[in-house]
Amino acid sequence: KETLDKGLEKSKSGIFEKISRAVVGKSSVDEEVLDELEEILISSDVGVDTTIKIIRRIEKRVAEDKYTSVEELDTILREETAALLEENNSQDVQNSFETDNLPKPYVLMVVGVNGVGKTTTIGKLAHNFQKNGKKVVLGAADTFRAAAVDQLKLWGERVGVDVIDHGMNTDPSSVAYDAVKVGVEKNADVIIIDTAGRLHTKVNLMKELGKIKRVMQKVLPEAPHEVMLVLDGSTGQNATIQAREFTKVTEINSLAITKLDGTAKGGVVIGISDEFKIPVKYIGIGEKMEDLQVFNKIEFVDSLFK
Ligand code: GDP
């Protein structure tokens, strides 16, 4: 929680300052305060639709309470936002670094456009699973981006897990096939497949991801168990747009939102979590191995709006 507070410092100081300014000279939460709050949430990348839902909830509560002092505003904001996310995210996937309740091997396919932190997130995941005593195999199937394979191999060495690669410009589905095969042979707990994310060629990407899935299913018919989309939180609304585009290309089961440290756009996690009904599983709050956290709605909202 402390690391999370620190990671979200930029986002929350912005929001906090704006709210403090909005309530100066006010004693109770009135329409004017709520109008300002609405603007603050939208400018904090929470997203228009989600902001409106939050404001409606607060309005209702304020109306029921008859008198709400401005001192209570941040508590109410936290509670209503958390309640909204809770309500809309019933189909939670297991979000932890444990695999005990998952099929073995568990095949996780990771998608996302270049630069969002996909490789780094895979490295961090490998580290966390490994730390919990799980055996991990990585597949370097992002064979298009220069250095992607090398970067994943570097993470593999750093963390101490096997990386299956065929070099650059090779067939990604053949890498995925081998990674799943080796994972099964070595009795791995988790197999994580890195894939290329060239969203500008949507039809090709759709075909390519489809092929990767079909080919790995020759080894393990139920694979992949999960497709995770990685989004760069520091791009704010762009992350939302990418989520919208990717969900058209392939089924997405979970999200990882990176680079929430050093950005004031942390509010985007709330909007994305509300809009897509796809559980946010992990958040990235730094470049190091340890800087990946399991996403907890209540803690996140608590850190952001405090
Ligand atoms: P990919 O192209 O999607 O595989 O992206 P990379 O994993 O290579 O990451 C791109 C850059 O973002 C690298 O410099 C990473 O160190 C950095 N990065 C990834 N995740 C985070 C994060 O949570 N916080 C910060 N500050 N940087 C990150």
UniProtKB/TrEMBL annotation:
Gene3D superfamilies: P-loop containing nucleotide triphosphate hydrolases (3.40.50.300), Signal recognition particle SRP54, nucleotide-binding domain (1.20.120.140). GO terms for molecular function: GTP binding; GTPase activity; signal recognition particle binding. PROSITE patterns: SRP54. GTP binds at residues 112-119, 194-198, 258-261. It comes from the Bacteria. Belongs to the GTP-binding SRP family. FtsY subfamily. Part of the signal recognition particle protein translocation system, which is composed of SRP and FtsY. PANTHER family: SIGNAL RECOGNITION PARTICLE RECEPTOR SUBUNIT ALPHA. This is Signal recognition particle receptor FtsY. It comes from Jiulongibacter sediminis. The gene is ftsY.
